[in-house]
Amino acid sequence: MKKNIEKQETYRCLSRLLTRAMKAEFFYQAIFIEYAILEDRLTSVLKNASVPVVDKKGNSYKISKKIDMIRSRREFSSKFVRQRISLELLDSIVKWKKKRDVLIHNLANVPYDFDAIRIVAEEGFVLLKKFKNKSQSVINSFKKENNIQTQV
């Protein structure tokens, strides 16, 4: 219970920071926060479907692997899940991540391009909101399903 409360407070804090970063045009900060929340939401979807999120050595899977698992595993193939976390939505996350990666990995190597960074931050903001909403209903469904299974 305490862990859930801490997680909720962390989310509230990150959401406030993200909103402030967008308003203040601190777009790199916004991109970092968007990525962190997206990765956490992907992890939560997997965990609630009882899918491992770490490899045999205990290392957490990277975001690309998490997306691939949601795309390909049978736990996510139902109509209910696919209506919420569609392949198109997952593709959008992959495309956004690629743009984000280019910006982050070339941070010190290319001239600062305010508009390009702003666009990636804005796309991430919209994408994150959509994914959070869609994934939460899937997470709730898995929780309900797991609770029913443990009671039987």
Calculate the mean pLDDT score and round it: 92
Query: What multimeric state do the chains show?
Result: single chain
- Count of individual domains: 1
Strands, total number: 0
Low-confidence segments, given as residue ranges, are: none
Overall, the morphology is globular
Please describe the biggest sheet, giving its number of strands, its sense, and whether it closes into a barrel. none
Radius of gyration (CA) equals 17 Å
One letter per element, helices H and strands E, the order comes to HHHHHH
- Termini separation (Å)? 23 Å
Which structural category fits the helices and strands?
Answer: mainly alpha
Helix content: over 70%
Classify the beta-strand content into a percent band: under 5%
Helices, by number, come to: 6
Description:
It is a single chain. With 152 residues, the protein is mainly α. It has one domain (2-51, 83-151). The protein is 77% helix and 0% strand. It is built from six helices and no strands. Helix 2 (27-48) runs parallel beside helix 6 (114-151) and helix 3 runs antiparallel to helix 5 (87-105).
